[in-house]
Amino acid sequence: MLLLQFSTSHYCRKARLALGYKGIDYQVENLTPGLHILKLRSLTKGLTTVPVLMAADEIIADSTAILKYLEKVVPFPSFIPAGEKEKNQAWLLEDWLDESIGVATRFVYYNYRAGEGKAIDPSLSSQIIINIVGQQYKITPARVKLAEERLENALKILEYWQNQPYLVADKLSVADIAATALLSPLALIPSYRQKYPWLFARIGEIHQQCREKLPPGLN
């Protein structure tokens, strides 16, 4: 399998965590933001977002679709709870994290990288990519403030995770994969590291379980 990705994308990290948990051998092709459109349009019938997984039998775009495909082709070890109630809960959390919290993380992270965190990588190429992302997603101070509030509320909801190893039931699920990947960029922001040490402990544990390198800020 070949994973087309942006190396810094937390949605692509979500796909890598799932591949690692399943123990699937795969290769990665890192694309350049902006130029990636030229490659993806012909492969995905017009879609222009990553990750995209190229398998032997089909091409799968979108991180959630990739998780569902992997569960179908490699059912063990499963990251779907066995019970119907727990299964529904895991997918509801995954969807909330994917559609709302991952977006909020993106706004807060790139705002930090463009300002206080510029010294993390002040190179011209890095700053160009940060500017492209900022323009593409219309990252403004007002929208960043809303994203910060959304993250604060989300982390209150997820506080119970500090008292148990998994978000749903007693084993890793799609909810843990989504939370781990989509909140991992916050590890580079000191205020989040100081306020939520339990979160980054969990993120580190899930990365180890999924055989994935720790995200920047934790390695």
TrEMBL record:
Top-rank taxon, per record: Bacteria
Gene3D superfamilies according to UniProt: 1.20.1050.10, Glutaredoxin (3.40.30.10)
MF terms in GO: glutathione transferase activity; maleylacetoacetate isomerase activity
Protein name as annotated: GST N-terminal domain-containing protein
InterPro entries per record: Glutathione-S-Trfase_C_sf, Glutathione_S-Trfase_N, GST_C, Thioredoxin-like_sf
Signal peptide start-end: none
SUPFAM superfamilies the UniProt entry points to: GST C-terminal domain-like, Thioredoxin-like
PANTHER family the record matches: MALEYLACETOACETATE ISOMERASE (PTHR42673:SF4)
Membrane-spanning segments: none
Organism of derivation: Microcystis aeruginosa (strain NIES-843 / IAM M-2473)
Pfam family, one: GST_C
GO biological process, alphabetically ordered: glutathione metabolic process; L-phenylalanine catabolic process
Domain called GST N-terminal: residue spans: 1-78
